[in-house]
Amino acid sequence: MALLEGKIGLICGVANRHSIAWAVAQAWRDAGAALVFTYQDERHCRNVQELLAGLPHESVLCPCDVTNDADIDATYKVIAEKYGRLDFLLHSVAFAPRKALEGSFIQTSREDFCVTHDVSAYSLVALSRGAVPLMTSGGSMLSISYYGAEKVVPNYNVMGPAKASLEASVRYLACDLGPRNIRINCISAGPVSTLAARGIKGFQDILSQHAACAPLRRNVKAEEVGAAATFLVSDAASAITGQVLYVDCGYNVMGV
After folding, report:
1. The pTM is what?
2. Which amino acids are annotated catalytic?
3. How far is CA 143 from CA 9, 72, 120, 202, 209, in A?
4. Is the pLDDT of residue 137 over 80?
5. Who contacts 44 (Cβ-Cβ below 8 Å, separation ≥6)?
6. Is residue 169 within 8 Å of 179, Cβ to Cβ?
7. How confident is the model at residue 56 (pLDDT cuts 50, 70, 90)?
8. Section 198-224 average pLDDT
């Protein structure tokens, strides 16, 4: 029996075939899960539709702007009507205005700071709150972070504090959700060449340095993040919650 056979999962954050969320979706699908996908706008809808057309089974697709509570409620209503429950959730959503990823962090405007934290961190809280009523027999939630939450990464700027907020939110949510037998964890992935990552100035230099310094002397592959994500939402990880798992070829252990 496949690891996630008969399970229902929600995937938030697929932008295109290079997205970490898409790698996780493929891994969950291969492990036997039925999946619901959200998309932000019509442009992303077309991208996701093209990807889903290549899957062997039909998937559900819902519009969902994670800054809009009505959209989140509507997504869970679709899941409730079609499946009656939800077993796991992937939150792979992050955004910062381009100007906030250029120049100095100290120049971040109040508006850009708030927008970045709303989309990249608070959305996890909002999505988790909506998922709880559907996880009647327990469940698992997962988010995606990056080392810039812990250490300074040039040009990552406001995304660093936002990811730090995300990781802290995972810990607090773990405490809230544990009595309901709902687990929540976070993967801190090494740099992957996604659409969002390519918006960071000097990203190719980050990739080069990571490969040169990581103990495995290479960059992480998106499918390796997908494999870790499959483990974390499976029953094999039933005693793991509130954790940040580094999937980065060991880069985070290096001091020099």
Report:
1. 0.93
2. 146, 156
3. 13, 16, 10, 25, 25
4. yes
5. 14, 15
6. no
7. low
8. 84
